[in-house]
Amino acid sequence: MASPPHADPAIRVMAMPADANANGDIFGGWLMSLMDSAAGSIAARRSTSRVATVAMDGMQFLNPVAIGDEVSVYGTLVRVGRTSMTIAVEAWRRHRIEEKAIKVTEATFTLVAIDDTGRPRAVDR
Q1: What is the domain range of residue 101?
Q2: How many CB atoms lie within 10 A of CB 104?
Q3: Cβ atoms of 61 and 21 closer than 8 Å
Q4: Number of structural domains found in the chain
């Protein structure tokens, strides 16, 4: 069985009732938003500029997240192009009274460094 990356998460948050549907499962869009925020944070630090998400690929929901679960989002910078960065992101959940973490989903995000006018700018090498 897989385990979470051996790094600090980019984001860690507890799923709350406002994040859930009528069945008590967390909305996929809420989880996707966390993952996009994590990717954006990693890309902004690398590019030292504003960034914009231009693509997200390969997301499949593997396991549900319930109210009260701790969600940790990890990201790894995979590629740096002239203006873009590719970041692999994984989300893991852990019930608040357990130690075992379970992978919820993963996706690849592509972000572009932008200047103050919103135009693409080169990522410093």
Answers
A1: 11-114
A2: 22
A3: no
A4: 1
